[in-house]
Design brief:
Ubiquitin-like (UB roll), 8-stranded mixed β-sheet, 25 strands, single chain, 6-stranded mixed β-sheet, Rossmann fold, Metallo-beta-lactamase, Chain A, alpha/beta
């Protein structure tokens, strides 16, 4: 009996790196290829991708990759996935027009110009092996968001992507509620739904309420205004531009991704900017403060983002000063709160006024609240539910919502990455666990840095390093010149007396090794390491990395 398998490789038990494998008759459709940003303990790691080993091993079975929308946590891993699948396997990548344009721009940066990307209009059907694919229009904080409906002989799986039921969206195109209801009437087999705001009661505010709030705020600002938002939030940028136009202010776009996404949005008709309104970054100082609005990246406190650099007085084009108002038209993604708070604090130190979503209605979430999740469940009336896109708390709360609208608890599956749900005519059950986890991007390389590498980086960041260079006689292994001691980043800076004591420990350790006839360099370094680490901890109550170097002469 052929079963349908839904295998999440990312996005469950976490916010980010969404990737789902839908499999039937040994053919695969991949929904979303996202990434997430590293946590503070991932020293030196630039990006975190889902572990897609399963796809690498099944590359020839992939019919297509479908992307729900253009946010990094849904499309960001695409260049690495396509490169790793190999040149012989180039699956078609489907998505809405804006989604495909953003994906193409991302692939161009990675010089992957052979990829086959196709914009799929909402409601149009495409045959993918045993599947029929359809995109259903949804509203989110970026245009061209869609839910993915995959139909096979067993029934239809609906992966919602990120969504909310905004009745007054900025572009005037609400979610296709009628098509969702049709899927429900036809009999939906499985719903994989967004859980991000399952913990928020009621309905989310409409994106259209943000525009008037921004205009009201701008009218009360006498100096320069800096608005930071997600670079992909095209609707928000449009509302900032509209508010600036009403108040006769020019607008400057700061941040490479902000300029790139606005250009893509303009080319597709998602954003309109009056002629002559945009000001290049190099001309900012040519305009008085009360005539300028700057739209910047950096709403999440990202280390190299434009606003973060401004806050640290390190931006080449914008120097913030007393009287500027910085508007955070976004809320921190869970895990980013500390970085955002640090940026806000530095802005206050400069003398800026800071306005956040806690102070004024200048942000609306792109994810539906609890009542919208219940609305989705009632519209599509699924046979089974698998909450997606959220940490375990939110997945649990989404489960409770499904039970509240009448689903049998046995038909709601709280999953995790690597745990496939198998559905056939007899019912649904968990399948055998598959490999899932994280792949780190460190510089330009991808892989799984050994645990020891991350441990060493944490140790270096906490207690520093000291290097001891010992020169020993090739004949008897004894020290022939005084050891050289080099400290870097050790919190308690060593004085001359400590250095002399360390040299004495080195001499004693080498003398003991010589007496025990230990001659191999590796063994000598091991003996030195143990003796020195013990001594330094006793003296400093710190555990810096100890790196002994033994040279034979």
């Amino acid at each position: 009996m052929t079963s349908l398998r839904v295998l999440p490789l990312g996005g469950l038990g976490e916010i980010g790196k969404n990737m789902t494998v839908v499999e039937y008759e040994d053919r695969i459709v991949v929904v979303d290829v996202g990434l997430r940003f590293p946590t503070a303990d991932m020293m030196g790691i630039d990006l975190v991708l889902p572990d897609f080993t399963y796809l690498r091993e099944r590359a020839q079975d992939i019919e297509a990759i479908v992307i729900t929308h253009g946010h990094e946590d849904h499309v960001g891993a695409l260049p690495w996935v396509l490169r790793e699948l190999g040149e012989t396997t180039v699956p078609v990548v489907y998505g809405g027009p804006l989604t495909v344009a953003m994906a193409r721009s991302k692939l161009d940066e990675h010089k992957l110009r052979e990829a086959n990307l196709e914009a799929l209009p909402d409601g149009e059907m495409v045959r993918l092996g045993p599947f029929e694919l359809e995109l259903v229009h949804m509203t989110h904080s970026i245009p061209d968001s869609a839910a993915v409906a995959l139909t096979c002989e067993l029934g239809t799986v609906l992966v919602t992507g990120d969504y909310k039921f905004d009745q007054t969206p900025v572009d005037g195109i609400p979610a296709d509620v009628s098509r969702l209801a049709e899927l429900g009437r036809e009999g939906l087999l499985l719903l994989c739904g967004d859980s991000t705001n399952a913990d928020r009661p009621g309905f989310s505010p409409s994106e259209s309420v943000v525009g008037p709030a921004l205009e009201d705020l701008f009218a009360r600002c006498e100096g320069r205004i800096v608005v930071t938002s997600f670079a992909s939030n095209i609707h928000r940028v449009q509302q900032v531009i509209d508010a600036a136009a009403v108040l006769d202010r020019k607008v400057s776009l700061i941040g490479r991704s902000m300029r790139k996404n606005v250009n893509i949005g303009r080319s597709l008709g998602h954003i309109e900017i009056p002629e002559g309104m945009l000001v290049p970054a190099r001309e900012i100082d040519d305009f008085p403060d009360h005539k300028l609005v700057i739209v910047s990246t950096g709403s999440q406190g990202e280390p190299l983002s434009a606003l973060r650099r401004m806050a640290h007085r390190d931006h080449p084009a914008v120097e913030l000063h007393d009287g500027d108002t910085v508007v955070f038209s976004a809320t921190p993604i869970p895990g980013n709160e500390r970085a955002v708070n640090d940026t806000v604090d530095r802005l206050y130190h400069i003398g800026c006024d800071v306005v956040t979503a806690a102070d004024a209605p200048i942000h609306a979430s792109g994810h539906g609240y609890a009542e919208e999740l219940k609305l989705m469940l009632n519209l599509v009336r699924p046979r089974y539910v698998m909450p997606f896109h959220g940490d375990f708390k939110r997945i649990h709360l989404h489960t409770r919502l499904a039970e509240a609208v009448g689903l049998d608890p046995k038909d709601v599956f709280q999953g995790e990455n690597g745990r496939p749900l198998q559905v056939d005519e007899r019912g649904a059950r968990w399948g055998s666990r598959e490999q899932a986890g994280m792949i780190f991007v460190d510089g330009v390389d991808i892989g799984d840095p050994a645990d020891v590498a991350l441990r060493d980086r944490r140790m270096l960041s906490a207690d520093g390093i000291f290097i001891v260079v010992a020169t020993v006689s090739e004949q008897d292994g004894r020290s022939v010149v005084p050891p050289e001691v080099i400290f870097r980043g050790v919190p308690s800076e060593p004085d001359g007396q400590l250095v002399e004591e360390i040299c004495a420990v080195v001499d004693a350790s080498l003398a003991r090794a010589a007496q025990e006839e230990i001659r191999e360099i590796d063994l000598l370094q091991e003996v030195l390491h143990d003796d020195l680490a013990e001594f330094v901890y006793e003296r400093l109550r710190r555990r810096p990395m100890v790196l002994p170097v033994v040279v034979e002469v």
